[in-house]
Amino acid sequence: MVSVVPPQDLVHGSKYLVDIVYKDAVCNPPQSAGSVEVTFAGNFTLAPILYAPESSKFMSQTFKINFVFIEAGLQNSTKITFIPVVPDSSPPPSVCGFARIDAYSHVLVLEDFSEGIQDFNMPSTSFSNAASASSHITTITPSYDLVDGACYNVELSYQDGASHPAAGVTHTMVRYVGNETLPLSAFLPSSGSRVKEAFSFEYRLTEPAEADSLKLTISAESGGVSDSHGDRVIVFQGDSLFAGPHSITFQKLSTIVLDVNVKSCFISGVNNCIDMVHDAYYTFRLEYKDLAGNAAQNIAETQLRFDTATGAPTFTLPAASSFIPEPFILVYELPEPALENTVQLKIEPETGNVIDDTGSERLIILGPAYEFGPELSGTTRHELKIGALVDLNSK
């Protein structure tokens, strides 16, 4: 029969000194085999604690790995697995609704398997070459880099020294931002277009922007009406910094800070924007930094004409006080493109003639072929022949 004094189980993960002691049958002094230190590993691997990378945060190229093993592990069993997340187009506050896609899972095997706190940073090399640059890393498979702008679930796993099945912990939605900010794509309004006082600003971020780094700078160009007020710098905030497509309706710059997406609008350091000037031309330059503060990327749309009033057309033929035959020649010039079906020739009867026209005003809608006008400067000349009015609707 075996007995235990006191009757208490060993504690999983604790170390013990173990010895065999006995007396011989004639009661000579006891002898021992000599104590040895052991760790009690129970019948399963104790779960590790993972501190970094953190869930719903980002990893730069030199990201920190910080975790705790409650008990010592088995050599070459300490693994960090980066499992790519497929973006689902969820809007903010989802941190990975929009992201680039990685086709591979990546397994990093760490050299250290001792109990306690483990804390180190990835080397400043590409991820695929990190094993050759750090004594902490045994292998990385496959030999591909993490994808800048992609999201991962990060799993830490290991086996205890008794080779029990692995235990692990996972942090989710961790975005990798690498060592450079991803380029911007073209945005709206696009180069060479007209901008109204209320216009739609549409852009897309491949990765989230660092706080205070997403800016739109509006600079006056030559060629139109002069604007000497200086560059307007609009700083965005909140949901506008998330990855994915964005659309913000601009109003007057003097009141744009009322928009929840706008943190500030200033000119030369003064936090008080001035409205753009009618018929002046501008460059819109968008810039941002990624979450790690890597060097900024920017892109510009140019020759944007700020347009708050319809320009006056010029009317050449028929000339004033002239006689018009049938058919007669109509000549006019437009200083800018016309809205569809708004170019109209109005013919209004006057009274006091020997023969008065008792009918109503005639309104001739000229149609798409006669609506063209220049986007930037000058005018577009239109000439057409007007025959019998009763025949126009059949043409």
Describe the structure in brief.
The protein is mostly beta strands and 395 residues long. It has one helix and 26 strands. The mean pLDDT is 92.
Structure overview:
β20 (281-288) and β21 (297-306) form a beta hairpin. The protein is built from one helix and 26 strands. The radius of gyration is 38 Å and the shape is rod-shaped. It is 1% helix and 37% strand. The protein is mainly β. The protein folds into three domains: 49-178, Immunoglobulin-like (Sandwich), CATH 2.60.40; 194-306, no CATH class; 314-394, no CATH class. The relative contact order is 0.11.
List the helices and strands and how they pair.
Elements: E1 15-18, E2 21-22, E3 31-32, E4 36-39, E5 49-52, E6 58-60, E7 64-69, E8 79-84, E9 106-110, E10 116-121, H1 130-133, E11 137-141, E12 151-158, E13 167-178, E14 194-195, E15 199-205, E16 215-221, E17 232-236, E18 244-250, E19 262-267, E20 281-288, E21 297-306, E22 314-317, E23 328-334, E24 344-347, E25 362-365, E26 380-386
Parallel strand pairs: 6-13, 14-21
Antiparallel strand pairs: 1-4, 2-3, 5-7, 7-10, 8-9, 8-12, 9-11, 12-13, 15-18, 16-17, 16-20, 17-19, 20-21, 22-23, 23-26, 24-25
